[in-house]
Amino acid sequence: MTAELLTGIAELTTQAAESSHDDDRLLGAALVIENGRIAWLGPAAEAPAADSVVDVHGRAVLPGWVDTHSHLVFAGDRAAEFEARMAGQRYAAGGIVSTMLATRAANEADLVANARCLRREAEAQGTTFLETKTGYGLDLAGELRSARAAAEVADVVSFLGAHVVPPGIDRRDYLDLVTGPMLASVAPYVDFVDAFCETGAFDVEECREVLLAGRAAGLGLRLHGNQLGFSGGVRLAAELGCASVDHCNHLDDADIDALAGSNTVATLLPACDLSTRAPFPPARRLLDAGAHIALASNCNPGTSYTTSMPFCVATAVLQMGLTVREAIWAATRGAARAVGREHGPDAVGSLRIGGRADLQVLDAPSVAHLAYRPGMQLCVATWTEGARARPLANRDLST
Ligand code: NIG
């Protein structure tokens, strides 16, 4: 068991405080990683001896990003659909079928390889923990291999058989399949059940049926809600105690009250909002009402083809009215809450003595640079469970 000391940290953001309002930055800090965990953190001048030392030379260190919404198991791309959208066409749920066809035509090894490649992209941008979903197989065999592929690549997997009803099957028959044999076959590979509650996908009662079947199978609950309109998804998610309801672009006062009065996290997806020219969710109102929020990439070929969490953080600050600290909280500790990993020995999204050593080093003296220098590659190194990765071959920490 060797101990590695990271020192020379200009600003260490721990996210160990219980709210994004509390300051949890240590200036002039150091930390020690041992056995995949944080063994010590505090003022650099008081750091204990270690087997090896990495001096980050005045850079900022913070928890790695926790990306809790992505759809990485797919084949093909939808650049033509994107171009048409940028020329004025509206996004509709139906585009999912074109990715379903490409995904069904691909072999499982290629699906895993593509998802791995996207995960590596995400890691290069500081992501150290990632959720991904099924949802482009949409028949029993397709969802099963998507679940297997997702489980190989991601830390948390959600079953999204209820993404849309695929062509060629009766709606009732499809729901019976999703809540019956499909759920039973994917259950060993997945942690959550998810559904797309929207016009063109599934209504509130259909989503309720899917989520309750998932709960009966022992899965956690999450939901896509209120992306394209006032679908009722947000209130259903709050009522059922979903860990997260994702998108939340269209919220009325009752939706905001329902979220504020629940433990359901509103997961906001700014890259998707830009790529679909959707109104941003009312992030400021959600926070001011006392709701919990998270930020995620929603990487998928239809509505958000990016794995970059720094892009989401910068957009949330520059366009959605969040402070830098609120946005970073939402992409780390808030996101951990959205996958039930905020507390306990496997907690992610914060740096605490005894907790997982999942962290990133920025080529900047403070986290403010994430929004102050948008679009720049600031992440120069990550440690995931104590193992170091260096995202860019042409950068190091020596100066
Ligand atoms: O989260 N909204 C539903 N699912 C994806 C988009 C899927 C697609 O269009 O391929 C999303 O945006």
Quick recap:
By secondary structure, the protein is an alpha/beta fold. It has 14 helices and 15 strands. The site of N-(iminomethyl)-L-glutamic acid has 12 residues, from helix 2.
Strand order, biggest sheet? 5-6-7-8-9-10-11-12
Helix and strand composition category: alpha/beta
Strand content: 15-25%
CATH class placement of the largest domain: Alpha Beta
Assembly context of the chains? single chain
Extract low-pLDDT stretches.
none
Give the overall silhouette.
Answer: globular
Distance between the termini: 28 Å
* Beta-strand segment tally: 15
Bound molecules: N-(iminomethyl)-L-glutamic acid
Residues in helices, as a percent range: 25-40%
User: What is the CA-based Rg, rounded?
Assistant: 21 Å
CATH architecture name of the largest domain: Alpha-Beta Barrel
CATH superfamily of the largest domain: Metal-dependent hydrolases
Biggest sheet layout:
8 strands, parallel
At CATH level 3, the topology of the largest domain is TIM Barrel
What string, H for helix and E for strand, traces the elements in order? Answer: EEEEEHHHEHEHEHEHEHEHHEHHHEHEE
